[in-house]
């Protein structure tokens, strides 16, 4: 099912908090849901499809439908793939709209790991019966170890350096200084990154994303609904999703599932990477960004380190502006679900509503991409290409 020109993103909302305190997960979901609908000029009564991941409390979609008072639902999707879930939700919502199953789809995400003192666990996901669990019990910090392995392999294969990894963080920090809601607003240098404590060789503390409470929401609508709304029109023109796993031990960790999701999204959109001047890229770790730049085709495999060095990701300075809100590395990474915030900043850029000092001039086509689970093992990738009208 091709969805080019068949759905629009009409509303977005990012929760301003980074520490939830006494706010419940359901309240966070409700806050961003109402915010996104208000942004679109719609109400809860207009919603006929609801999408959420495992972070939604209770029975997920059913629980939140009652909590929000959604009475007109025709369609529901609770796909869970970690950080990429919400890009897949946008794709699935556009597909449902294209075949007439719904016309206004609400997608929400919220988590509060700081308030729950949960650490890096994936909210709502029961790992107790996972077949690989016996091999990882007692190993703390699993995500960072997995990405450290990817980074070390990239260094071995292609000569990537710690300094090049650090430039990703430096670029994100240059953007975060203009975001009043960013958890970390200070600008850092390559030396700051390299001098921060080593977490898992070769990744330092500043190579890792922040951990926050919060959330976000997106409203996807049919062309007919979009036409009657007095809002900037952001059209979904290309989507892709893909899955990659360990394949019984024969996994090549030098590339990710983004290689396939990106190819599918660009093919559907009918454009190339040369048409993209802004990209929201999942930034759980600095190596994650370098891998995605290569796998999506912004540079050749093995040249991601060279691509990012000397500030090439800094808006107004480099070749490709990325994560102009500060991204997960500096601003907001609610739990282990950073994909939602990638969508939100991509829409802001497409609308021309990013910070004035960071807004890209050519914003006709923008891209959002995320990975879910661990790039060193099984993971899912989602790619969304948007067009401003």
What distinguishing features does this structure have?
389 residues; globular; Thiolase; ten-stranded mixed sheet; two-stranded antiparallel ribbon; 18% strand; 33% helix; Thiolase-like; Thiolase_C_2; alpha/beta; Thiolase domain-containing protein
Describe the structure.
This protein has helices at residues 25-40, 61-68, 85-98, 113-116, 142-158, 162-176, 190-195, 223-228, 258-269, 286-295, 304-308, 327-330, 339-351, and strands at 8-14, 49-51, 75-77, 104-111, 198-200, 203-204, 214-221, 234-244, 278-281, 321-322, 365-373, 379-388. It is of the alpha/beta class and 389 residues long. Helix 6 (162-176) packs across helix 10. The longest helix is centred in the middle third of the chain and has 17 residues, at 142-158. The protein is globular.
Summarize the structure.
This is Thiolase domain-containing protein. With 389 residues, this protein is α/β, with parallel strands linked by helices. It is built from 13 helices and 12 strands.
Could you give the topology of this structure?
Elements: E1 8-14, H1 25-40, E2 49-51, H2 61-68, E3 75-77, H3 85-98, E4 104-111, H4 113-116, H5 142-158, H6 162-176, H7 190-195, E5 198-200, E6 203-204, E7 214-221, H8 223-228, E8 234-244, H9 258-269, E9 278-281, H10 286-295, H11 304-308, E10 321-322, H12 327-330, H13 339-351, E11 365-373, E12 379-388
Parallel strand pairs: 2-3, 2-4, 9-10, 9-11
Antiparallel strand pairs: 1-7, 1-8, 4-7, 5-6, 8-12, 11-12
Pfam families: Thiolase_C_1
Domain Thiolase C-terminal: 240-380
Protein name: Thiolase domain-containing protein
